[in-house]
Amino acid sequence: MSTDSSEDKVETTVVYVAPVEESSEEPPMDEWSSLEIDIPEENPKRVLYSEGLYDPGSGEICTKYVSMSASSVFRHPYFNYPAVVDPGINDALLKPEAKITYPDDGQALYLATCKDMKQYPVMKFHRELLTDKIDLKYYCVQPFGVRAMAMALNYNRNVSSFNLTDNFLNDDACFHLGEMLMSNFTMSELILSGCRIGPEGVKLLVAGLPYNRGLRSLNLNKNGIGDLGVEYIASKVVRGIDVQKLYLSYNNISGKGANTLAEAFETHNKFTVLDLSWNNLFAPLVGTNTLLNRLSENKYLQELYLSWNSLAGARVGTAIKSLLKIPSLRVLDLSNNKLSDEGIHNFIGNMIKPKKMVTLNLSYNPLTHDDSLKLLTKMKLPAVKIQNLFMDGVLVDTDFLNLLTQLKSMKSKQNTVITYGGVSGGFKAEEPDLRDLVLNRMEFLTMKGKKKKVNMALVILQMEKDKIDIMNSKAFEDAVMATGAPLDSDLVNEMINAFAGPKSAKFKTIRISLFADYIRRKWPDRKLPPTPPPEPEPEPPPPTKVQKKGKGKKK
């Protein structure tokens, strides 16, 4: 068997043949790539070592690169490991905690204290710590939050006035305020009016007052401290305090408390303003008289308020007379008391003593016409320097008005202000006319309503025209009701009273002529319609012919 083998022949087509450049020259040796060798830079330490400028050391391995637990590492016997720096453990265990120092303005201290006490800070107080006045009146301050406020004010040098009016404070708040007054000498005014602190609160508040040398005004109005609270204040006054203005109004202080203050003033009597208004100084009156006599020895007193104390009597007038001897007195308020007669006459003579007095207030005292006239007569003297005499609520007479006119015409008294309540005697108040009121009411009910309208004015005029003059009350009421006018019996009775007729023991009467005359003057356009002329009488019928007897008779 034979096999045929054949080779496949592939036909190719030549498109392009590149020319081959033959060259017998080779590139230079410096261009051979095999000869390019990177020579590493020489170690700088070796260079320095060769120059004798570097010492590699002993050859020991640095412990920075060796684990401390490797026991096979050779340790140099004289090598000292550095000690661990104390992070503050010794100071924390052996020394007391460092005290935090806050700025003197107290803002940071206030916020820190509120945070420790878990109290909400009063941001108004926080802002005003940088001003000269902190005003928190009617602010509903939390009593326990006053501790943080007092601590913030301990060393504050900005605030000079602190107002807590009508914020109810407890004993704890008063204690911290008292502690604050022992260290704060910048504050000159503390207002606690209406805080209801009571006698125990006053005791805690004024405990450190003798050590304070900055407070000048202390306002304790409306706190209900009573005579016991006055005793606590008096005990500090005896030791000498720098407070010049003391306000104690509306505190239920009686004559006993006034006597306690008088005893304290024997030692220290330098107040310039004292307010004892709205108290009970009328009982016992002996203590009040003693206080007034003691105050007359004060050469610095400028303002004294004694209103609303029911002061009365000749002894009070004598005590007031001694007060007018104070050379520096400017304001004396005796309003709303019971001064009259001898109580006024006893001190009138000393009105020329005070040369700096501006105001004497005697308003709402039961002064008689004679009292007011004597006061005005004394005011007319050139030696009296009082500028304002207030007598509001006091009734005067015409003599007072004439004298007042003369006083105002004086050049030296042109700026003097004198007030009074009213004038009595010689004047009569003008009352409304009952007749006018009755007619207006009658007109409203009969002509302005929606019901049947009846012109009562014409009804009265018609009665007069019918020659009716005097009627008793019963007959007049029946006549009014017969017209259908919507008038009740009370109004009819007032009409009878306004135009009353002759008196009778049995019944009232009304005069219609007076009633009609007033109606014509009040409403001149109201007139009755003219009376029509009388109708002519009819003519009598003509007489008829009478037949003669016997004529026309049949025979």
TrEMBL record:
Bias kind Basic residues: ranges: 546-555
Q: Per its UniProt record, what PROSITE patterns does this chain match?
A: LRR
Write the record's keywords in alphabetical order, separated by commas: GTPase activation, Leucine-rich repeat, Repeat
Region Disordered, residue ranges: 523-555
What Gene Ontology terms for biological process does this UniProt record contain?
A: nucleocytoplasmic transport
In the record, what terms sit under GO molecular function? GTPase activator activity; small GTPase binding
Q: Does the keyword Repeat apply?
A: yes
Reading the lineage from the top rank, the first entry is Eukaryota
One term under GO cellular component: perinuclear region of cytoplasm
Task: Check the record and name the SMART domains matching this protein.
Answer: LRR_RI (SM00368)
Q: Which Gene3D superfamilies match?
A: Ribonuclease Inhibitor
**Regions that span the bilayer:** none
Is Repeat there in the keyword field?
yes
Query: Which segments show compositional bias classed as Pro residues?
Result: 529-544
Protein name per Swiss-Prot or TrEMBL? Leucine-rich repeat-containing protein 74B-like
The organism named in the record is Bicyclus anynana (Squinting bush brown butterfly)
What is the organism lineage in this UniProt record? Eukaryota, Metazoa, Ecdysozoa, Arthropoda, Hexapoda
Gene of this entry = LOC112050891
